[in-house]
Amino acid sequence: MVPLAPSDPQRLGRYWLAGRLGAGGQGVVYEAYGEGGERVAVKVPRVDDPASRSRLAAEAAAAQRVADNREGLPVHRRLTEAARFWDGHGRKPGDLLHGSNLDRTLRWAATERRDITLLELEREFLDAAAGQSRRQSRRRGLLAATLAVLLVAALGGLGLAEYRRGVSDRQRDEATARSLALRAAGLRESDPGLAMLLSVAAWRLAPARPESRGALYESLSQLMIDSFTDPHASPGTVYALTHDGRALAAVLGGQVRLWDVREHRQTRAFSGVGTTIRKAALSPDGRTLALQDDRNVRLWDVTTGRPAGGGFAAGVGEFQPGEMTFDRTGRLLAVPEGDYAARWWEVTGRTRLRAGSGAPLDAVNADRSLGLVSSTGGGRAELWDLRKGRRVPAPWLPLKHRLDDVEFGEDGRTLASVVNRPSERKVQVRRLPSGDLVTDYLAGVAGRRIASSARFTAHWSLLGELAVHRSSDRHIVMERRLPEAPDPLRIDEADRVPGAARGDGKREDRHARHLTDVRQPRGRGGVVLRRRAPGAGWADPRDRHGRRDAAVGRP
Description:
Low-confidence stretches: 495-503, 509-555
Number of helices: 6
């Protein structure tokens, strides 16, 4: 641009002239600015005639067309070049436009193209490219649909596989639970602790299965809660169990083994006791062992393994019935003599306890103030004051041959008996020395032997049929048929630990629901009914089945 000449105007119409851009035969071109500041070129023709005006109008129209197609011209140029390349190389599909280039070209040709006319070759090129794009889109859509179907099928297959796996796992768990429940049922007697664990495991695997629920309910109601088997048991072994069930003595072949039955371990062993032992008894503290052979009874110090003094009382034959047992103080010992008769001896002095008449005593109370004679002589049973050596009047006592069994209560102030009358058999508990009835009920054919405590009375037959009554209201709190006849049977309301020895070397802990724990031996031994603890409620750390009221036996 050159400055304006003196002859040039400063303004043309609404434009201010800034300088000359060029000059020619047709006229002069100026650089100018409008009132809004826009920059333009203004051409002033030299000749003002119709022909000049037409040419100027044509140039202006051409310039406007160029301006209008300024952005589309590069697109058109690329389209022209691509169409020629495609046509010159055999019109291959790979030479066609695709992707964003094709989209931009089609948009320009359809909406942005102004005064540009496409050649036939360019239209064919665009049609071919658009057709190829549509075909590719359809193929991609079909592929996507196919993949979607395959994905759905795969997910369905996975879902089915997962469902079948869940069904398979459930069936496996149910089969395992059934197997565990059956295994637990077979271990109720031999290994009750493991049976309980297996029942819980079966319920956890398949809680909805009847077998699992049944196994769990059986665990809640099973009598036996623990079991201990003497590993050296044999048919000739003689056993003795303490009142609390914690210590077990096994005598075989002149050797004694002491066991802690709760821990299932041997605590002591000694020998030299003889090979003809028939009966055995452990003192309540577990320190003294009484052994009866075919000659006499001897006491042994368990701690040292040595005899404590000489022999006393009479011996017994190999198959003579009856059991030898200490009283709860450990100062008296009941020694079997004859058929189902036991004579009481004072341990320290090795003297037999006798009534004032000289007859041996069949029962002695806890403080040794009262004794009963029921198997010697005829007439009525005799109640004796042992301290004064005189007979206590007791016209309420039955005839001796009518007494099947008799036992003093734990406190020594009651007397429990089984009275066998011609038409009935009754269990009676009377206060001493008045003879007032505490409880009186029919024993039926089951009642032949008896055991009592402050609150309960139990009677059983030689066939093992056991019934336990609550003394306050004569309510039967337990009826059970035991595997064998218990001899003896005791009720312990103070101890929490049940247990008993069987003749086959097995010690069992049992529950008597609503009242007691039952300890059932087989062969030589007995049953101990143990109420959990005095008071309104009871709970045993070994009892997994909740808390119950001691009086009524309900939760």
